[in-house]
Structures are given as C-alpha cells and as structure tokens.
Design a protein that fits this description.
With 119 residues, this protein is α+β, with helices and mostly antiparallel strands. The chain has two helices and five strands. The protein has one domain: Tetrahydropterin Synthase, Chain A (2-Layer Sandwich), CATH 3.30.479. The longest helix is centred in the middle third of the chain and has 15 residues, at 52-66. It is elongated.
C-alpha cells in the first residue's frame, strides 16, 4: 500500500550548462508540485504506514528551503533540473522516512514531471 504527501513551491532557476540562447539558459521560474510517496504495511496498532502529520512537517521544512528561492543557490541544487530536485528531496527525507518509496516533482504549467525511486 502507498500513501503520499504533496507540497508546492514557487522558485526561480537557470541552467548554466545549456547553450546560450536555449530557453532554459536564462533566469526563469516555475510553480512546482512535489509528491512524497511512502510504501509499506499498515501498522495494526496505529492503522498507518507512517504518520502523515510527521511526513507533512518534514515536507514543510523542505518547502521553506525551496519556496521563493533561487534554486541554483541551494546546496546540492546547483543544477536544478527536475531530476536533480527529485534526488535532492529524496536525500533530504531518506534518513527520517524509511518507508520512502518515490519522490515525484512536476511543473504543471509545462506538463513536465519526474519520478525518482532511489536508484
């Protein structure tokens, strides 16, 4: 069984490694949606796979680090692609959420997204 928590953030970024003139070379921003998916067995005492209140609190702490920020300045996100954002979120949450199964990040306005499962 899977459960998930979503959070949103608005942020700016650029991709210095793409050629000048490429649409992503210059500074631009997006509204992002991140989904953190946990998988496991339901605990018979709590009825939970994980306490979604705790998951939400951890996600909100990440949101504070990303929302209305220039992502290139966030440690570990110097190249802030969807792929790297998903891996970054995974790495931030893995120590505290052993049931973490997948991180999805999407930009709905572009209909782009990425899913990362730790490999």
């Amino acid at each position: 069984m899977e459960i998930y928590q979503e959070f949103t953030f608005d942020a700016a970024h650029r991709f210095p490694g793409v050629p000048e003139g490429h649409p992503y070379h210059g500074l631009h921003g997006h509204s992002f949606v991140a989904r953190v998916v946990l998988s496991g067995r339901v605990d018979s005492k709590t009825g939970f796979i994980a306490d979604l209140g705790e998951v939400e609190a951890r996600c909100l702490r990440l949101r504070e680090r990303l929302d209305h920020k220039y992502l290139n300045d966030v440690d570990g996100l110097e190249v802030p692609s969807l792929e790297n954002i998903a891996v970054w979120i995974w790495n931030q949450l893995t120590p505290d959420l052993p049931a973490l199964a997948r991180v999805e990040v999407r930009r709905e306005s572009c209909r782009h997204g990425c899913a990362y499962s730790g490999t």
